[in-house]
Amino acid sequence: MPMAPLSSRCTKKEANRGAWTAEEDQKLAQVIEIHGPKRWKSVAAKAGLNRCGKSCRLRWMNYLRPNIKRGNISDQEEDLILRLHKLLGNRWSLIAGRLPGRTDNEIKNYWNSHLSKKIKLKEKQNRGFMVQSEHEKTNVMEMDHIVDRREEGTSTRNVDSQSSFIGDDLFNSSSEGPLTLEWMSKFLEMDESWFELLHDM
DNA sequence: AAGTATACCAACCGCGAGCGC
DNA sequence: GGCGCTCGCGGTTGGTATACT
């Protein structure tokens, strides 16, 4: 396997690794406030951080950026993630783009630690295996709850036309089948207002 | 209370795409 | 067209917290 260009890797000179300190965060935020979130290598240098640009970018994108929402992923968000993952696969940045305030890293982590397990359990159950434990039963019931809400096609939807369009396509069980390119492009171009409505409920 | 297993998540790594020279 | 640099993405790792025995 060919090595990545040297420029894309953090060098030994940029020795500081591991968890960021409050002081580092502050320095990084100050430099970005002045120079903007670009040219990460020079941002790192200007901040006097012993970090590579890549690390600075990641820290900013996933933690320091304004309007970041952290933790407490709602049922609606979870539902949306499930639907979008079904539609887009592991395109975490695209999925995150449809969830205001959420980062690709957070969604990826949430998927890997929560949702993938739930889905495996659900599939297992669908294949007719016995559910083993109370914990697993709970997870399966949670999945059923999500599926039920989709099938009901109610609760979280507003009545305005755009919202109901996207809501129906997202939650209607009929879209469990193959999703068309037309649907996908329509969905991905959807205005953020629908998501704001969703979060306001 | 102590040791071990599991879950969670921040951070790192490698790669590819895009851009300017 | 080739090269180097930067950026963004997705996969993976490792440290910490929590649950379990």
Question: Please, could you describe this protein's structure?
Answer:
It holds the Pfam family Myb_DNA-binding. GO terms for molecular function: transcription cis-regulatory region binding. It is found in: Nucleus. Its main location: nucleus. By secondary structure, the protein is an all-alpha fold. The chain has two domains: 13-64, Homeodomain-like (Arc Repressor Mutant, subunit A, Orthogonal Bundle), CATH 1.10.10; 75-200, no CATH class. 61% of the residues lie in helices and 0% in strands. It is built from ten helices and no strands. It has helices at 22-35, 40-46, 53-64, 75-88, 92-97, 104-126, 134-152, 161-171, 181-188, 193-200. α2 crosses α3 (53-64). The longest helix has 23 residues, at 104-126. The model is unreliable at 1-7, 129-141, 143-185 and 191-201 (pLDDT under 50). The protein binds a DNA duplex (21 and 21 nucleotides) through residues 1-10, 17-20, 38-41, 53-55, 57-59, 61-63, 90-93, 104-106, 108-110, 112-114.
Précis, in short:
The chain has two domains: 13-64, Arc Repressor Mutant, subunit A (Orthogonal Bundle); 75-200, no CATH class. Helices cover 61% and strands 0% of the residues. The chain has ten helices and no strands.
Task: Summarize this structure as a short list of keywords or feature phrases.
single chain, 201 residues, mainly alpha, Arc Repressor Mutant, subunit A, elongated, DNA-binding, 2 domains, disordered N terminus
